[in-house]
Amino acid sequence: METDLRLESSLWIGNRRYRAVLTGWYFNWTEVDKKNRDKKTIAVPVAEVVGVEEGRVEILLQKLVEDTDKDFTVFYVKRSNSGGSSGLLWRLGRTQFSCPSRVLRDQWTKHLRTALKTHGPLRPHRLLVFINPFGGKRKARKIFHSVVAPLFELAGISSHVIVTERANQARDHLLKKDLTDFDGVVCVGGDGMFSEVLHGLIGRTQQEAGLCENDPTVTLHPCPLHIGIIPAGSTDCVCYATVGVIDPVTSALHIIIGDSQPLDVCSVHHASSLVSYSVSLLGYGFYGDVLAESEKHRWMGPLRYEYSGTMVYLSNRSYAGIVQYLPADPLLSSPRDKTRCLSGCSVCSRSTDRLFSHSSDSGSLYSSQFSQFSSDSEGDWVSVEGRFKCVSLTCMSSSCPRSPLGLSPSAHLADGTGDLILVWDTHPLGFLKFLYRHTSTQDQFDLPFVEVHRVKAVRFSAPSGKEEEGYEEIGGLSGGIDEEERGYDETESSSGSQQHLTERVRGREMTNEPKTPSPFLCGLCCSKTPAASVWNCDGEILPFTEILCRIHGQLVRLYARGIEDGAAVHSSEESDKSERTCILHK
Ligand SMILES: Nc1ncnc2c1ncn2[C@@H]1O[C@H](COP(=O)(O)OP(=O)(O)OP(=O)(O)O)[C@@H](O)[C@H]1O
Ligand SMILES: CCCCCCCCCCCCC/C=C/[C@@H](O)[C@H](CO)NC(C)=O
Ligand SMILES: [Ca+2]
Question: Per its record, what are the GO molecular function terms (predicted)?
Answer without folding.
Answer: ceramide kinase activity
